[in-house]
Each structure stands twice: as C-alpha cells, then as structure tokens.
Write a structure and sequence with these properties.
By secondary structure, this protein is mainly beta. It is built from no helices and 15 strands. The protein is 0% helix and 46% strand. InterPro entries: Bulb-type_lectin_dom, Bulb-type_lectin_dom_sf.
Length: 162
C-alpha cells in the first residue's frame, strides 16, 4: 500500500491527477488537475449542515436535489427521519419532512419582503442576507453572513428532532 486512498465520486474516467482542497467556505472540492475542471464538491451534496453558499433546492436541468438530512442518531451520520428540501410542485417554499410526511413549511417566498411568509423574523435579520433564486435552470434558497457577522463561522443544522 502506498498510502493512497481511493474514493469514487463519478463514473467519468479521468486521465491524470486529481486534487482536493477544503476551501475557507467549508466546501471540499475535488478537481482534475490537468483541466482544472471541478469533479465534485461537497456543497452539491449537503448533509445535515447548511453553510453560507450552500443551495437548498433543485436543478431543473439535471434534476439534482440539494437537501439536508438529519442524522440517524447522535453517533450515526446516515440519513435520519427528517429532511429539509424544496419540491418542484411548490418551487418557492421549503419543507421539513418526517419520512414522506410534511412536518413544517416556511410558507411561500415573498419577493417584496425578501422572506418566507411564515418566517417574518427573516426581515429583521441584520446578521444574514437571504436569497431565493427561481429561474428556468434552478430553484434554490441560500444565505450569506452580513458584515456584522464578519469572519464568524455560521451554520444551520438539521438536528435529530427536525
């Protein structure tokens, strides 16, 4: 054994070296060093943690879903009972599901107030900039910290209880 670890993230064949880097944003990126093409990034497959820049939603072009899933238990990171996701049938709303049953909803995105209708506190936030993108290619929700937060690390976590 030469100390290398092999992990398949794609069925695509790569000739050459693959590089990996953990960015300051928390995004782990694997790329083809010869073409500098991104092969995979952790922000495309979020787990239970919503970081600034992560998308919650879906791609209309590829069908890719960006969703959070709770852990199965405090020591088992496999997907648990709860998920946070969008649905193409209601592309301007985020849901927490317990299994396949709706557990909670944000309500619809209010473009004038820049907040979800059932979370009016979003309008009061001086710590975060919230964005909702809905176009022909994708529909997603994301956030970024404001200058008041500075370099502090922020995250939202889908915990075991949803």
């Amino acid at each position: 054994m030469d100390g290398r670890i092999t992990y398949q993230v794609s069925d695509n064949s790569i000739s050459g070296s693959v590089g990996a880097m953990l960015l300051d944003t928390g995004n782990l990126v694997l790329w083809d060093e010869s073409s500098e093409a991104v092969l995979w990034q952790s922000f495309d497959d979020p787990s239970d943690t919503f970081l600034p820049g992560v998308k919650l939603g879906y791609s209309r072009k590829t069908g890719k879903l960006w969703a959070l899933a709770s852990w199965n238990s405090s020591t088992d990171p496999s997907p648990g009972d709860f998920s946070l996701r969008m649905d193409s049938r209601s592309p301007d709303e985020v849901f927490i599901l317990k299994g396949n049953m709706m557990y909670w909803t944000t309500g619809r995105w209010d473009i004038d107030r820049q907040a979800f209708s059932l979370i009016p506190e979003m309008m009061l936030s001086t710590s975060f900039n919230f964005s909702f993108i809905n176009n022909r290619n994708e529909s997603y929700f994301t956030y970024s910290p404001t200058s008041l937060v500075g370099n502090a690390t922020t995250r939202f976590v889908m915990d075991l209880s949803g």
